[in-house]
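Hello,

I think I submitted the GLP job twice by accident. Can you confirm which output corresponds to this input? Input:
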Amino acid sequence: MEVVIAPADQLAVLAAEAIDKLVRAKPDSVIGLATGSSPLKVYDELVRRHTQEGLSFAQAKAFMLDEYVGIAEDHPERYRNVIEKEIASRVDFAPDAVQGPDGNAEDLVAACADYERKIVDAGGVDLQILGIGTDGHIAFNEPGSSLASRTRIKTLTAQTREDNARFFGDDLAQVPQHCLTQGLATIMSAKHLVLLASGKGKAEAVHQLVEGPVSAMWPATVMQMHPHATVLVDDAAASRL
Ligand code: GLP
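Support: Only one job matched these inputs. Its output is below.
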């Protein structure tokens, strides 16, 4: 695992650079997109490179990590809508090139299996962008998640619902209780993992990720077993290393 400590604004440039290099070398790349605040500046930098430097996603595909269950289709915090707003609609992905798990499917179990199949059929994810929760979750794989897990339904922890309440007008009651999330083994199947973390609130999670024992109690630690993982952190997030 490669750990890079750099000023917060440079982290996004480093992540965008990795995607830029990949997509120019392999235009039909498969990119793994994450929600949360951590990747937002990466997306801004990709949009800049698209508009100013000719970076094109016309042949690329993208898969999202996770989605809330039972959230209104037009809710601004539905992850599908967040990804559309923050990146998909701002670059030149082909229609339907960006996919996410269907948290409103009638049969959620079938939707999870279907999503796994789609990722495999696309040839797997080449580069997966990741954030990390304060409790060490990646995607919505909360503490206790099996390291061998695949896309499935999960219950959000109280901690994560509190962390995400800020996106729901600070009203905890509005934060969904369940989600569909790629599993840890699904994420580990990506060829390159790029995780971003900034701020003091992430320091303990980053400490565990980099220096803790591999454990389902800190799900991100599974990344220690990945052959190509890059961890991009600012000084505050690195303060416990
Ligand atoms: C959410 C998302 C994760 C994200 C995490 C951290 O729970 N499901 O994919 O990594 O929050 O979010 P942030 O980047 O806003 O700190």
